[in-house]
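Example 9 (inverse folding). The structure is encoded as follows.
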């Protein structure tokens, strides 16, 4: 039987998917980074050797291994080595710091922790020592190595939990999201079959590989047999040289990426920013219709946007066949096997791409309804053509550059500041970030005026990750509240400040 992208998506495990692709096109490039290239066959061979090295260190099927690594060829190799062993891996975003990393290590009970050493001026190894992490090893350039002959057989099924991803949601602590190989393959298949890339396409991964989008995108590469350029650090215009040199045809990531590409294009009117580019694609944050139209008009490319979350890596995805208006105003359609139900305006989901729940059983029980549908907390509606339109969120979560930020976590920390009487943290629409973080503070009588620099310095000292720091500070005499339980009315704050520049 001839292998096709759709037949490959029936693979039981991620390792089986890689093995089948490597047999089909062993010498085709898969990952491109700087002057390096790794083929599909090369990934399989190198991952087996790294798996043997890890096995020699005591990693076994079911062993929990945390890794906090940047987007590099070595990171993908390590992840597939762990998949070959059937270990449980818990990726951690590289810019998370002591608070989030410590929580992830404790809750997952990680027995090993792979990190990059000193990266972008931050000493991850020192942080690991502070946290008392077990089995710490650096995996930036050098990876464990061994003879694959020592390895046990690869995992035979893909329905066991082998992935723990982390999302802040609406609580002060992250939530450990449980995924299987099959749920990640199902999510990546949705993206792949909607975009239908060709073997001569060249994609790009400019976001953290530790994000749920990492396996999502890699599954697409394995299904359709085309390569992607990896960016360890993404910034424009610096990244343009690599996009042009590798003739990238598909780029994107989230709303913030669209805005960055558009801004760079506007600095070069009359010149195509990336001559080979034909498509921007992404998700993870609200997509203003006007931004979509501006990108298509000014960059001369298509833009397809999707809807996903850590719990369900891909729910719907726009397709180039949808037409300009649907692409601008909807999040696309779900793939076969993804059930979407709208209950009292809330989007609920059931299907193979949906996570198995959370590390905390109480959170799992709360998240799923009696029929097994995941409560997303997002509000939306389905069009007659089956496209999804998102209209808002029930959850008090801010989505900045595709990452969930808990308002409560920032509020709890700011309540410790002596110059803060009460505080409400909200997300405000932002054309570049999707949303920006705004702290609205009610100060106690006699307190010295609070400045944005004060807030930033305090939250940094409390260990808050840089990407969660408020970009906007507003001081009010009194926060608006309802007349019953005196609950702060955040919607009134959003109405008041949505048009305010940071």
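The amino acid assigned to each position is listed next.
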């Amino acid at each position: 039987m001839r292998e096709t992208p759709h037949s490959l998506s029936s693979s039981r495990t991620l390792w089986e998917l890689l093995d089948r692709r490597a047999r089909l096109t062993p010498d085709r490039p898969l990952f491109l980074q700087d002057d390096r290239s790794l083929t599909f066959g090369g990934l399989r061979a190198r991952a087996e050797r790294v798996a043997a090295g890890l096995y020699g260190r005591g990693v076994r099927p079911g062993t929990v291994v945390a890794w906090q690594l940047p987007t590099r060829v070595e990171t993908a190799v390590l992840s597939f080595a762990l998949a070959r062993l059937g270990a449980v891996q818990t990726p951690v975003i590289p810019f998370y710091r002591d608070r989030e990393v410590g929580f992830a290590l404790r809750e997952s009970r990680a027995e090993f922790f792979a990190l990059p050493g000193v990266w972008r001026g931050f000493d991850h190894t020192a942080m690991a020592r502070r946290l008392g992490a077990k089995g710490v090893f650096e995996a930036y350039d050098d990876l464990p190595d061994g003879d694959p002959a020592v390895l046990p057989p690869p995992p035979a099924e893909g329905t066991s939990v082998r992935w723990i991803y982390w999302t802040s949601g609406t609580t002060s602590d992250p939530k450990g999201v449980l995924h299987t190989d099959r749920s990640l393959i199902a999510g990546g298949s949705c993206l792949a079959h909607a975009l239908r890339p060709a073997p001569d396409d060249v994609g790009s991964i400019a976001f953290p590989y530790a994000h749920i989008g990492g396996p999502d995108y890699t599954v697409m590469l394995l299904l359709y047999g085309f390569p992607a350029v990896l960016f360890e650090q993404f910034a424009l215009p610096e990244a343009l040289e690599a996009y042009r040199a590798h003739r990238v045809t598909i780029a994107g990531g989230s709303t913030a990426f669209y805005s960055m590409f558009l801004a760079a294009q506007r600095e070069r009117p009359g010149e195509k920013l990336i001559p080979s580019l034909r498509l921007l694609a992404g998700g993870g944050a609200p997509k203003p219709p006007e931004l979509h139209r501006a990108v298509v008009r000014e960059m001369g490319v298509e833009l397809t946007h999707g809807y996903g979350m850590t719990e369900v890596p891909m729910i719907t995805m726009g397709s180039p066949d949808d037409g300009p208006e649907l692409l601008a105003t909807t999040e696309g359609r779900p793939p076969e096997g993804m059930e979407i139900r709208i209950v009292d305006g809330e989007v609920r989901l059931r299907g193979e791409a949906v996570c198995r729940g959370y590390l905390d059983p109480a959170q799992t029980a709360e998240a799923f309804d009696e029929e097994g549908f995941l409560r997303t907390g997002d509000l939306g509606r389905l069009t007659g053509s089956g496209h999804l339109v998102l209209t808002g969120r029930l959850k008090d979560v801010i989505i900045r550059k595709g990452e969930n930020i808990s308002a409560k976590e920032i509020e709890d920390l700011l309540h410790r500041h002596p110059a803060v009487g009460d505080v409400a943290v909200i997300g405000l629409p932002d054309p570049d970030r999707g949303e920006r973080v705004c702290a609205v503070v009610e100060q106690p009588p006699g307190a010295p005026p609070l400045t944005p620099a004060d807030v930033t310095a305090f939250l940094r000292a409390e260990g808050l990750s840089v990407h969660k720091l408020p970009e906007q500070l507003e001081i009010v005499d009194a926060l608006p509240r309802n007349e019953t339980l005196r609950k702060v009315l955040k919607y009134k704050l959003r109405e008041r400040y949505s048009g305010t520049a940071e």
